[in-house]
Amino acid sequence: MPNPIEFFFDFSSPYGYFASTRICALAAKHGRTVVWRPILLGAVFKVTGGAPLPSLPLKGDYSVRDMTRSARYHDIPYKMPSVFPVPTQAPARIVYWVEGTTPDRVEAVVLALYRAYFVEDQDISKPETAAHAVAKIGLDPVQALAATNDASIKERLKNETQAAIERGVFGSPYVTVDGEPFWGMDRFDQVERWLARGGF
Amino acid sequence: MPNPIEFFFDFSSPYGYFASTRICALAAKHGRTVVWRPILLGAVFKVTGGAPLPSLPLKGDYSVRDMTRSARYHDIPYKMPSVFPVPTQAPARIVYWVEGTTPDRVEAVVLALYRAYFVEDQDISKPETAAHAVAKIGLDPVQALAATNDASIKERLKNETQAAIERGVFGSPYVTVDGEPFWGMDRFDQVERWLARGGF
Fold first, then answer.
1. Which of A174, A182, A199, B82 could make a disulfide contact with A8, Cβ separation 3.0–4.6 Å?
2. Which residues have CB under 8 Å from B163's CB, separation 6+?
3. Of B59, B189, B200, Cβ closest to residue A48
4. Closest CA to B124 of B153, B151, B152, B89
């Protein structure tokens, strides 16, 4: 079995959302699967000195414009959320819970949570809202809600974020193919060639 | 006449170099010309809080890897310079001198200076080295050297950098098409569609 593609992302990242809609098709085309790794960019930024894009002088204004334009360019439904960015512990914990219980639903859960935030403008930082979003695709909202407050899942998210930082992850989306790192959906052309040729 | 494409860049920017090798063909394909606008990213970073890529935790290591890989991907000759980044007043001033004297040589001059730095590992921050690089394509090295120390050209570079900041330029390359800004060579697919359709 070839290695899966690791997809690191934060639920508050528009570019992570855009890329999440494309990564599975890209992986499947080359016989790969995807391992979804939600992390907390806030913890990453403490190490890197980074900051949420909209807060940056000049680059912030550009980014907001680029997000909307990039969504149009790639024909991806997108609405800048009213509250942005938001803390993303709740949706990230739900993903790790699903991974441990019904792993074949992880992709659908990631897409449902991202859609709730970036299309339907629902504040998925609230555990109830995140649980409601996955209930719409058939998961148990009571269990989902419980997962957002589960000690071992909290620990898991913390560990995954720390492990990602130790491996050099500094942004979202951040993809690795057989150990080779690619940052941003705008590197998917390079990801594709790497998958096709095993490097270049 | 359609508006020219404005191409803002710093001579110490690998991604600016990569993009410089492609922007003219892209512009010409859509009946446009290019206005070359060398600026000083150091002055920009004072406003934005930005910093040279290699100095950033995690992102720095990735960037160095991405630069080399992106050059291979786009089939552009590239060698990480021994000294990087460098101050870029000298090459930038030479460009503004050429613009005022033999404007049809500007593109060739930009490419020659970039090539000296990112292919031949010559430290173009030194006025003599920058002048030598443009002498190789037929410009007068004595006049080029004088331009790097010319008061009005110094002022021009300062003013262009300030004007760029006021217009929101925060990185390199940064391209505008009819006022629409695009940051990075990885937005050239969007630039192309914008040129073809007049927006999207």
1. A174
2. none
3. B59
4. B89
Given a contact cutoff of 8 angstroms between Cβ atoms, the answer to whether A39 and A164 are in contact is: yes
Chain B contact for A127 (CB, 8 A cutoff):
no
Beta-carbon separation of A66 and B183 below 8 A? yes
What pLDDT digit, counting tens, does each position of A178-191 carry? 999 999 999 999 99
Q: What percent of chain A has pLDDT over 70?
A: 100
Q: Distance between CA B184 and CA A138 in Å, rounded?
A: 41
**B164: which chain A residues are within 8 Å (Cβ-Cβ)?**
none
- List the beta strands (DSSP E) in A134-200: 174-177, 180-183
A78: nearest Cα among A115, A48, A111: A115
Residue A141 near chain B (CB below 8 Å):
no
Chain B contacts of A62, Cβ < 8 Å?
168, 170, 181, 183
Instruction: Give the chain B residue nearest A71 (alpha carbons).
Output: B200
Which of A98-107, B42-51, B178-187 has the weakest average pLDDT?
A: B42-51
Find, in chain B, the residue whose alpha carbon is nearest to that of A165. Answer: B58
CA distance A159 to A167: 12
- On whether any CB of chain B is under 8 Å from the CB of A68, the answer is no
Segments in A34-88 forming alpha helices (H): 41-48, 59-74
Q: What pLDDT, in 10s, does the model give residues A112-145?
A: 999 999 999 999 999 999 999 999 999 999 999 9
- Residue A140: how many CA atoms within 13 Å on its side-chain side? 8
Distance, in angstroms, between A170 CA and closest chain B CA?
6
